[in-house]
Amino acid sequence: MDSRYLQDKEELKQPRREIDEDRRSFLTAGLVGGAVAAGTLAAGMAHAQQVAQAPALSDKVWWPHPKWGKDDQAGASNYMTPAKVLDTVKLIKDGKVYRIGRIYESAMPKFGERAFTLRIPGSPTGGPFGVNKLIYNDEYLSTEIGQTGTQFDGLAHIGIQMGKDGDKSEMRYYNGVTDQEMNSAYGMKKLGIENVKPFFTRGHLFDLEALKGAMMEAGQEITVADLKAALQKQNMQESDIKEGDAVFFNTGWGKLWMKNNDKFNGGEPGIGLEAAKWFIDKGIALTGADTWGTEVVPNPNKDLAFPVHAELITKNGIFNHENLDFTGLIADRKYQFAYIFSPAPIRGATGSNGGPIAVT
């Protein structure tokens, strides 16, 4: 994400708070069928009050998770079962491995004021030792390790402020976990990346750049119609996308990487709420793209800030993999593959670095 959007007070005003009409009717209808139990009325009023305080798109609670329950911290990585692995293996035909992650280096584009600094403390760092005169080198890395370069967003990364601004007991994350019960100075006490299961699942790549005939531009939204057209162009079927699969978007934006970092960071093409909800209904486990946020920025609705992140990660436990490189897959016209990635098990981290691969 680019901090300039979070600093734009005109584009990112506090969303208007509205009470759902059905619930307003509930509160004003009086007696239903001649009588309404006092407890039911009180519960309805409490719920309506919560809705009145809810930000846009969050008028309904999203917890507990209907499939994995109130205590789950693994989200959509729960789809990674032995059956899923065996089904995924069927996609491997030629045994070719593609590195789809970027090289980590200080000059890469980074969101906001995030940093990536590597130092070798002395050369060599130590030695010589023994009669064989062994020497060695170490590195010191200072960075937001889960949120720079090719980055995997965990479930503690994105939340939604419910209730009053600043109320940590109403800052809600996946499965309703609050900031108050989760956050600490030395790592998240809940929803840390160590809870995410390794990914070995079916990957589907949508080449939107080829569909459009050119690199997409910042603020250009990938629609469901675009996705269906890409499937047709690539001789794929919508039914190919199964529960627990991963979906990826090549927009051409990745061509700006290390060439025009300012433009790369200045916005991006990507999916909007329409496409996000389409994939949510299909039960996908992960989205990914050659952009820094996967979703369209700026959003067509200027009052919304990164709503796709909230819908996928916070409300549904669906993960997001950013700043990927599909160059090899695109060159070989490989649009379906085994996506393999094991998040770095850093206790309490909000995300992960690492080297995802695609195997065809």
From TrEMBL:
<dbReference type="InterPro" id="IPR037175">
    <property type="entry name" value="KFase_sf"/>
</dbReference>
<feature type="transmembrane region" description="Helical">
    <location>
        <begin position="26"/>
        <end position="48"/>
    </location>
</feature>
<keyword id="KW-1133">Transmembrane helix</keyword>
<keyword id="KW-0812">Transmembrane</keyword>
<keyword id="KW-0472">Membrane</keyword>
<dbReference type="Pfam" id="PF04199">
    <property type="entry name" value="Cyclase"/>
</dbReference>
<dbReference type="InterPro" id="IPR007325">
    <property type="entry name" value="KFase/CYL"/>
</dbReference>
<dbReference type="InterPro" id="IPR006311">
    <property type="entry name" value="TAT_signal"/>
</dbReference>
<protein>
    <submittedName>
        <fullName>Cyclase family protein</fullName>
    </submittedName>
</protein>
